[in-house]
Every structure is written in structure tokens, then in C-alpha cells.
Design a protein that fits this description.
5-stranded mixed beta sheet, two-stranded antiparallel ribbon, 12% strand, single chain, 2 domains, 41% helix
Amino acid sequence: MKASDFEIRNYEKLDKILSKLCALVVEGQKTRPGHFGKVAAAVLDPDNQLVARLNCPGKDGGRIHAERAAMEAYEEMYGDIPEGSIVLTTCSPCSEHMAERDGASCTDYINNSTVKKVYCGYTDPTQEEDQREFNILETKDAEIRDLCKTFAETFMDYEKAQANENFADGRHPEDKGDSKRYGINTKASVSSLRKTAHQGGRKGQLAHWLANMKAGRAKKK
């Protein structure tokens, strides 16, 4: 693996692909809204072979996230994903436990592949970033980012997460109220929550999630 395999270039080309992925989401919602989700992803290899897929149903009522769907589809069509390939996605890869997801997180899935570059339309502020073993870059095209953010906000419910006090972590119902049990001030500032997050453990984890969501909400304003 060369250092250059971690670099993301040619933003104009990648933004055109992101635009097509956005169109794929829109089309999926028009044709089969109950079947397709609101995230689209693609694998682009060094030979410019492109395979794109939407979030779709998996086993036992779960969902196969778009990144995994695209990577598996590429492997079915072309074989192993070659080094230097890039994953494009309308929303940055998930990393936390999600009860609705079929299989491992998209971050783990990418970490276990040859892919070292991810280009996204919008960065999900509720997901842990430290687990990534790849370079990720969010588009600077405001129009594409806003559209991808609009898609993402349909399944990232800040108000509901804060009311449930488990911060949309996808865990079990018994986690409700953890913020109170661990002494977290849900009205604290982002900087204060960041300091609490450094404590580690469950308290630090909850503070990290809330800080990320508050930071994301501030950007929206």
C-alpha cells in the first residue's frame, strides 16, 4: 500500500458521482420508498469501474447499509476490490451499534477491506470517528452537502434522541435514562461535554454522542 492510496483527489469528478448518488436516493424514494433507504454509496476503482447501491432490506428485517451493499455488489461483478479504490457515500459510514442494521458497522466493513479513501456528501455528527482506518473527506460543494444532509436528517432525530436520553445510540431500551444515571448535564455546552467525554467509559461515551449532535445542530442553524 502506497501513501498515495490514502489521498483523495479530483473533487470535481467525485462530486459528479455524489450528485448521481443523490439522484439515486430520490429515485429510490419515488419508486420503492419502503424498500430503499435514504443513503446511496458506490465503489470507484482505479480503472473507473463504478458500482452504486442504495440502503436495502437484509436478513430478518434488518437493513444492509449502502456502503456494504455497494462493496458486495462490486465484488460480485468484478471480484476483490483493488487497492486505490474509493468508496463514495451520501452520508459518512456508521460506526456505532444499530439495532436495525444487518451485520457489522460500515466503518468496520471498510476497515477490513483494501479501501483507504471515503468521500462523503455529509458527515454524520452522531457517529464515532476514532475507529476509522481510512481517510475520509466531506464534499465542499454546498448544494450537494445540503441535499445529503437533508437525506440524513430524516433518520437522525436529535430531539427524539435527547428526549430518550440514549442519544440515538441504537442500543436497547434499558439504556434510556443513562444520561441522568451517569450525571450528564444535557444542557451543557459542546466544549464542556467534550471535556466530560475525555473521562472515557459509558459517561464519556454518552457525552461524546451528545456533543456531536449538539455541534451538528449548531451547524444547521
